[in-house]
Specification:
The structure holds 3 protein chains of 3 kinds. Chain A is an alpha+beta fold. Chain A folds into 2 domains: 4-224, Rossmann fold, CATH 3.40.50; 238-362, OB fold (Dihydrolipoamide Acetyltransferase, E2P) (Beta Barrel), CATH 2.40.50. Helix content of chain A is 26%, strand content 30%. In chain A, strand 7, helix 5 and strand 8 (187-192) form a beta-alpha-beta unit. In chain A, helix 2 (93-103) packs parallel to helix 4 and helix 3 packs across helix 4 (137-149). By secondary structure, chain B is an all-alpha fold. Chain B has a single domain (56-280), classed as Orthogonal Bundle (MetI-like fold). In chain B, 69% of the residues lie in helices and 0% in strands. The longest helix of chain B is centred in the N-terminal third of the chain and has 32 residues, at 73-104. In chain C, strands 1-2 form a two-stranded antiparallel ribbon. Chain C has one domain: Orthogonal Bundle (MetI-like fold). The N and C termini of chain C lie close together (10 Å). The chains are: A alpha+beta, B mainly alpha, C mainly alpha. Chains B and C meet through helix 1, helix 4, helix 5, helix 6 and helix 8 of B and helix 1, helix 3, helix 4, helix 5 and helix 7 of C.
Chain lengths: 364, 281, 292
């Protein structure tokens, strides 16, 4: 059981490029924190700094109240699961699991007891004599997990551990990892670029972009109230629609928008609407009409790309139901809201609490 | 994909068989000649069968001092073996350690070290044979095993191969080992060494052959019969004082000289080919 | 990639053996050669005087150096082209017969392991003027064969021995290169209607050109240096210097003749030639190797 704190953490490379700026993060006992962001946002660097694999330019990493900046990876009592698993190819599964214990001069009988326990826990007991190359992707993943679990570390670090698996296995493994983490109650930092994975696994989510934390919060908080335009666009699938323009001449078909802000709108703003908050209706029945350009059927629902008359940008509409509209048709659009407003820096503008937030589903 | 043209296949096999036989011919003839009595040999027609002398000439060479050399051939073979093993083991050791430092550590003048070592890649000892002799003389190592082996270690081929190989390993392997509590020496022994087995075998074959077959440097540095090597001593039997060398002995000695490396290459063919193709890529 | 940053002494311990060897047995002799090439030793080796480029002009002006240069050129070119052509032919055949190719590979690669000096002796025996098997065949063809007297014949002898020994090296590379050509390319060309002959010259051969170029350099280097043993055991550079190559001359002048200044100048010239080859080679290596 441990806490993990990152205090004003920075990473600068020798060339002068700063890839992480003032990262602040506090993680509670047993919490699963998922760091998500596009590739190159610095999330892996952050994780590797916690592991002790990257040097720290400034700031502190504190585990259980103790600053570990100067400690070697092995001294930090952390365990890490790598994207490519990094299993030792010449060692059997048993030896892979046992290696860290051997290096710590654990007695032989205790090693074999703990290896067997761990193997039971991860359902790999039958594989102990095999070499990594004789294992399937899912089995390797489990061994990599086992190698992390066996040490009973203070902190688990996961570096995109599921991205080498195929889709169905990924869904299975993310449930397994989540269950295991809860059961062992070990503080965890999990890095991924996959927002679905992030949403489903996290106690709290950290969205990163260009070396900064954009927002920290529970998955639903980030979904309902994204603090920045970046978070709004990154969390949720399909992604949020954005309409940009000057606050002074907002299109007339967005009449409700200004009413939602608590402060006067000025300058360039972005208005975000999630695809599920737009409904198709008959022409002339909604706020605006448009032209259906593309329909992507997904089974129980379809994604309908509509170009509103007189506008450049397309809106994606999530249309629930198995009957699908035809491309080329005219359609009306009913923009129900909620709307998300962002100023020209991409910061969220405060909005009034809306009735629709709670009663949305009651509307016809 | 292959064309189904039986004619081409027949032609290919024919050519290959002729080629293989042509390449074996000199050795076959040498083996046959080494079993003939000197009289048969010098009559002018070499019989295409084993001669009456059997292994007599080999026994003579191995037990009695070789003409013009002063020690029996077993001693020459021992010296050649020591030189070949010294070069193979020595090169592998220093090359692995240096490549390990170059790939897995960051230290001042690392790039400089890299270039210092890799400048030696293409300049064989033959180019600087005279000054090398001077250096070895100054170190008091003339006509000694260290003097024989050490200058031949100054080449970066093996270092280059190991560096290439280490660079193909996923860096996460070292990171995982660090997290698992392995320091640099542990990592080298537990992870790197076992993973390099194939490369070590391959380079061992190449370096052993390279070492066994050395000619010019032993010729220059070795002056006493006690340290003479087999390949360099061949000339003692091919120098013709009266026009024709003692071919019955010269062929037997040549067979002794080529047998060990040829056996090594045939037994370890798989590694040899991997090593050769990897080294030069 | 992260490294063992905290260990400052360890990399130096690891580097030390290789660095010491390279500094003592490579750079020290190399610089000695550079220095000696600029000095003239007196007759008793007791003193030396700075001579500028006199050693170089003396070497470059001498007839025997020109001859050695010419011999080396003929020898290297013949060995490289001969060994490569033969190897390519056999490799293409071995690649064609698939599984049996591995058997042929075993039958063809072992000469690599034979010492150049031993290869020389083997061919010297085959071509011995009085009792050589091939000499008799040549005599029936009306050729009067005696490499001990005829310089051209001596050169042919060492060229054959060197080709015989070097062919297998090229064979391994050509075969590996051929087997590395994606089958889809050859299939595409077959669908495009190319026959075996056309397919070889339009697809296979161009794809082998990097290997061929690399082998050309390696063969040249081999012919320059490693064939010393071949020459020394068979012709000792003779008759009349007809097989005296640059390295052989370097050995004769430096080790036998004790001309330190002259041999040092020859060393430096050889280093320049090989350095040039290395540079060319490096452009080739550069494309496939990343320097970190």
């Amino acid at each position: 059981m441990a806490t993990l704190e990152l205090r004003r953490l920075r990473k600068r490379y020798a060339g002068g490029a700063e890839v992480l700026h003032d990262i602040e993060l506090n993680i509670d006992h047993g919490e699963m924190i998922v760091v998500v962001g596009p590739s190159g946002c610095g999330k892996s660097t952050l994780l590797r700094m916690v592991a002790g694999l990257e040097t720290i330019s400034s700031g502190e990493i504190v585990i259980n109240g103790e600053c570990v900046n100067a400690q070697e990876p092995a001294e930090r009592d952390i365990a890490m699961v790598f994207q490519n698993y990094a299993l030792y190819p010449h060692m059997s599964v048993f030896d892979n699991l046992a290696y860290s214990l051997k290096n710590r001069r654990t007695p032989k009988d205790e090693i074999s007891r703990r290896v067997n326990e761990t193997a039971q826990l991860l359902d790999i007991a039958a594989l102990l004599d095999r070499k990594p190359r004789q294992l399937s992707g899912g089995q390797r993943q489990r061994v990599a997990m086992g190698r992390a679990v066996i040490r009973q570390p203070q902190v688990f670090l996961f570096d995109e551990p599921l991205s080498n698996l195929d889709a169905s296995l990924r869904v299975q493994m993310r449930q397994d990892i989540r269950a295991l983490q809860k059961r062992l109650d070990i503080t965890s930092l999990y890095v991924t670029h996959d927002q679905t994975e992030a949403m489903t696994m996290a106690d709290r989510l950290v969205v990163m972009n260009a070396g900064r934390i954009e927002q920290i919060g529970t998955p639903m908080t980030l979904f309902r109230k994204p603090a920045t335009r970046f978070v709004a666009g990154f969390i949720g699938s399909p992604a949020m629609n954005f309409l940009s323009g000057n606050a002074g001449d907002l299109p007339g078909w967005l009449p409700r928008v200004p009413e939602e802000t608590t402060e006067p709108l000025t300058g360039d703003i972005s208005i975000g609407i999630r695809p599920e908050h737009i409904a198709l209706t008959t022409p002339n029945a909604g706020q605006i009409d448009g032209h259906i350009e593309l329909v992507e059927p997904l089974g129980s629902e379809s994604l309908v790309h509509v170009r509103p008359t007189g506008h450049e940008s397309r809106l994606v509409v999530r249309h629930v139901g198995t009957e699908q509209p035809d491309a080329g048709q005219r359609t009306g659009l009913n923009l129900q809201g909620p709307f998300h407003l962002f100023d020209h820096h991409g910061q969220r503008l405060a909005t009034r609490p809306r009735l629709a937030d709670t009663t949305c589903s009651m509307e016809p | 994909m292959r064309y189904h043209r039986p004619g081409l296949d027949v032609a290919a096999h024919t050519l290959l068989i002729i080629g293989a036989l042509a390449f074996m011919l000199p050795v076959i003839l040498a083996v046959l000649a080494s079993t003939q009595s000197p009289g048969t040999l010098f009559s002018g027609t070499l019989p295409l069968s084993f001669g009456t002398s059997g292994l007599d000439h080999y026994m003579t060479l191995l037990t009695e001092p070789v003409r013009g050399v002063g020690v029996p051939a077993w001693r020459l073979m021992l010296n050649s073996l020591l030189m070949a093993l010294g070069i193979a083991v020595g090169k592998l050791t220093i090359a692995m350690l240096a490549a390990y430092a170059l790939v897995f550590f960051r230290f001042p003048f690392r790039r400089c070290c890299f270039w210092l070592i890799f400048m030696t890649l293409m300049l064989p000892i033959e180019v600087r044979i005279v000054p090398t002799y001077g250096v070895v003389a100054e170190l008091g190592l003339l006509d000694s095993y260290p003097g024989l082996v050490l200058p031949l270690l100054a080449s970066a081929t093996a270092t280059f191969l190991f560096r290439q190989f280490f660079l193909t390993l996923p860096p996460e392997l070292m990171e995982a080992a660090r997290i698992d509590g392995a320091g640099p020496w542990r990592f080298f022994i537990d992870i790197l060494l076992p993973l390099s087995r194939t490369n070590i075998a391959a380079l061992f074959v190449i370096m052993f052959i390279y070492g066994w077959n050395q000619y010019l440097w032993p010729l220059v540095t070795i002056t006493s019969a006690d340290h003479a090597t087999l390949v360099t001593s061949l000339k003692r039997l091919t120098i013709a004082t009266d026009g024709t060398p003692p071919w019955h002995l010269a062929t037997a000695m040549t067979v002794l000289a080529l047998l060990p490396p040829v056996v090594v290459i045939i037994l370890m063919q798989r590694w040899f080919i991997k090593g050769l193709v990897d080294t030069e890529k | 990639m992260t490294t063992f940053q905290r260990h400052r002494l360890t990399p130096w311990l690891l580097m030390a053996p290789q660095l010491v060897i390279v500094l003592v047995f490579f750079f020290w002799p190399a610089f000695t050669a550079l220095r000696q090439s600029l000095y003239v030793q007196d007759a008793f080796g007791l003193g030396e005087t700075f001579a500028g480029l006199a050693n170089f002009t003396r070497v470059l002006a001498s007839r025997s150096y020109h001859e050695a240069l010419f011999n080396t050129a003929i020898f290297s070119l013949s060995v490289a082209l001969g060994a490569m052509a033969l190897a390519l032919l056999l490799a293409v055949m071995a690649d064609r017969v698939l599984k049996a190719g591995r058997v042929y590979r075993t039958l063809l690669i072992w000469p690599y392991a034979v010492a150049p000096a031993a290869a020389g002796v083997l061919w010297m025996f085959m071509l011995d003027p009085t009792l050589g098997v091939m000499t008799r065949a040549l005599t029936t063809l009306g050729i009067d064969w005696n490499f001990r007297l005829d310089g051209t014949q001596a050169m042919i002898l060492v060229i054959i021995a060197a080709i015989w020994q070097q062919m297998s090296y090229n064979f391994v590379f050509f075969l590996a290169g051929l087997q590395g050509i994606p089958a889809s390319l050859l299939e595409a060309s077959a669908i495009d209607g190319a026959g075996p002959w056309r397919r070889f010259w339009t697809i296979t051969f161009p794809l082998l050109s990097p290997i061929s170029f690399f082998l050309l350099v390696m063969n040249t280097i081999y012919a320059f240096f490693e064939t010393f043993g071949t020459i020394d055991t068979t012709t000792s550079g003779g008759p009349g210097g007809a097989t005296r190559t640059l390295v052989y001359k370097l050995y004769q002048d430096g080790i036998v003749g004790l001309d330190l200044g002259g041999s040092a100048a020859q060393s430096v010239l050889l280093m320049l030639m090989v350095g040039l080859l290395t540079l060319i080679q490096f452009r080739y290596v550069e494309r496939r190797v990343q320097y970190h």
